[in-house]
Specification:
CATH architecture of the largest domain: Roll
Helix content: 25-40%
InterPro entries: 2Fe-2S-bd, 2Fe-2S-bd_dom_sf, 2Fe-2S_ferredoxin-like_sf, 2Fe-2S_ferredoxin-type, 2Fe2S_fd_BS, Beta-grasp_dom_sf, Diverse_Oxidoreductases
Oligomer: single chain
Order of helices and strands: EEHEEEHHHH
Organism: Massilia timonae CCUG 45783
Number of helices: 5
Keywords: 2Fe-2S, Iron, Iron-sulfur, Metal-binding, Oxidoreductase
GO molecular function, one term: 2 iron, 2 sulfur cluster binding
Radius of gyration: 15 Å
CATH class of the largest domain: Alpha Beta
Strand content: 5-15%
Shape: globular
Protein name: 2Fe-2S ferredoxin-type domain-containing protein
Largest sheet: 5 strands, mixed
Number of domains: 2
């Protein structure tokens, strides 16, 4: 039994310590907003924050994150930066199929926490590990700029 801090709460997870964070979230804690995409940390669909930094939950074992703060998409609505990003996502009609969007949002939030005035190159760099099969990259960039402007206001 491991204790994980998820979205500000200490939760008990009865799983093998080698279990990836993704499966502990989805299967053990019923937090299904974080998605499985590739299982090899290549697509970004499984992105969560570990102590504020984006990580790939599909390859990170729960034993490696015990004692650290994990934040998932479920907590973004209550976070000022997360809410700004989600609101901008809606304004710009970013999602099409929506499958990659929780990972996209988590990466965008991490970017805006570190840099409130990102340039296109900053956005491209921060979002480069997140793949969108629908190709909404221009809308994602516009939404990140919109969220940054909303946070400045």
């Amino acid at each position: 039994m491991l204790t994980l801090n998820i979205n500000g709460r200490d939760l008990q997870v009865d799983a093998d310590p080698a279990t990836p964070v993704l499966w502990a979230l989805r299967d053990n804690l019923n937090l299904t907003g974080t998605k499985f995409g590739c299982g090899a940390a290549l697509c970004g669909a499984c992105t969560v924050h570990l102590d504020g930094a984006p990580i790939r939950a599909c390859i990170t074992p729960i034993a490696a994150v015990a004692g650290q703060a994990i934040t998932t998409i479920e907590a973004m609505q209550d976070d000022p930066v997360g809410k700004a990003v989600q609101d901008a996502w809606v304004r710009h009609d970013v999602p099409q199929c929506g499958y990659c969007q929780s990972g996209q949002v988590m990466s965008a939030v991490a970017l805006l926490r570190a840099n409130r005035r990102p340039l296109d190159a900053d956005i491209d760099n921060a979002m480069s590990g997140n793949l969108c099969r629908c190709g909404t990259y221009q809308r994602i960039r516009a939404a990140i700029k919109d969220a940054a402007a909303a946070l400045e206001a």
